[in-house]
Specification:
This protein has 274 residues and is an alpha/beta fold. The protein has a single domain, classed as NAD(P)-binding Rossmann-like Domain (Rossmann fold), CATH 3.40.50.720. It is 49% helix and 16% strand. It has nine helices and ten strands. An eight-stranded mixed β-sheet has the order 1-4-3-2-5-6-7-10, sandwiched between helices. Helix 4 packs parallel to helix 5. The longest helix is centred in the middle third of the chain and has 29 residues. The chain is globular, with a radius of gyration of 18 Å. Bound molecules: NADP nicotinamide-adenine-dinucleotide phosphate. The site of NADP nicotinamide-adenine-dinucleotide phosphate has 28 residues, from helix 1 and helix 6.
Length: 274
């Protein structure tokens, strides 16, 4: 499933390609970057919705917006986005954001779901970063944001594969950050906590036990991400509460944390995920 439409960006404006821009954090990146004067390539699978969103951004901000439909769980979908990146001029930002959650015990989760999660979150992100970086390095400018999660910091019972792919993205970004030092090209692992998007509802993940105070808006997550990028921070954890939570997780004994997470998983049967 691939499809591309819209005006190929041939302006002098910086270009951003956002995967999973149909809703949630990806859509919030698109709104903010369009308002800041970026041309955009919006990627996702829900064509009608992306077409309408692209039109809204074009008329509101006068920027060029393309729509790229591709399923990143499929090789052909990853290749379609790679091809678009290879043709990109002025590519300033790649946001590897597309993703989904699965709740439940590992041994009860379908193998196809597990493999798709690795493909969409890890394989696609690695391939797209590898495609985008040489041109950015040649221009000594640009950035890649890999959307990870606070789940990257703590192994989670009830969403084992999710925590593992997000930890991969965090480690991947940290290593890349060291390689890119001094090149003018930046990388970030964006590690949000609970964010109000379609993420949980689409997979039937029950969030009723999550206190209101823990939720962030997609807009504030994006604001913090772009602020971190300006400051060259490789790990970006939006929200003071979540920064404290991660700090605590680093200092408390890991065995204690594992026991706590297992007990919580038994209570909630793995129903909450960030
Ligand atoms: N919401 C949270 O609490 C939270 C917390 C930490 C990290 N995150 C991460 O934030 C990222 C964005 O999620 P969100 O919260 O904004 O959820 P969302 O509203 O459900 O958006 C997910 C996006 O990913 C796209 N996507 C999913 N599977 C895809 C596939 N196989 N191929 C192509 N595109 C695919 C969707 O596109 P279509 O629907 O058009 O297919 C959609 O645009 C994810 O990586 C997620 O893991 C979310």
């Amino acid at each position: 499933m691939t499809y591309a439409a819209g005006n190929p960006s041939s302006t002098n404006r910086p270009l951003a390609l956002i995967t999973g821009a149909t809703s949630g954090i990806g859509a919030a990146f698109a709104r903010r970057l369009a308002a800041d004067g970026h041309d955009l390539v919006l990627h996702g699978r829900r064509k009608e919705r992306l077409d309408a969103f692209a039109e809204e951004l074009r008329s509101a901000h006068g920027v060029s917006v393309e729509v790229l439909i591709a399923d990143l769980a499929e090789e052909v979908g990853i290749q379609a986005v790679e091809e678009r990146l290879k043709r990109a001029q002025n590519l300033e930002l790649l946001v590897n954001n597309a993703g989904f959650g699965i709740h439940g015990l590992f041994h009860e989760t379908g193998v196809q779901d597990l493999e798709e999660m690795i493909t969409v979150h890890v394989r696609a992100s690695v391939r797209l970063a590898r495609t985008a970086l040489p041109a950015m390095l040649a221009r000594s400018r640009g950035a890649v944001i890999n959307v990870s999660s606070v789940a990257a910091f703590i192994p989670s019972a009830g969403s084992v594969n999710y925590g593992a792919v997000k930890a991969y993205l965090k480690a991947f970004s940290e290593g890349l950050h060291m390689e890119l030092r001094g090149t003018g090209v930046r990388v970030q692992a964006l590690c949000p906590g609970f964010t109000r998007t379609e993420f949980h509802g689409r997979r039937g993940i029950d969030t009723s036990r999550i206190p209101d105070g823990l939720w962030m808006s997609a807009e504030s997550v994006v604001d913090e991400s772009l602020n971190c990028l300006k400051r060259g921070r490789v790990i970006c954890i939006p929200g003071r509460k979540y920064r404290f939570f991660v700090w605590l997780a680093k200092w408390l004994p890991q065995s204690w944390f594992r026991k706590l997470r297992s007990a919580r998983m038994k209570r909630t049967k793995g129903q909450s995920q960030d």
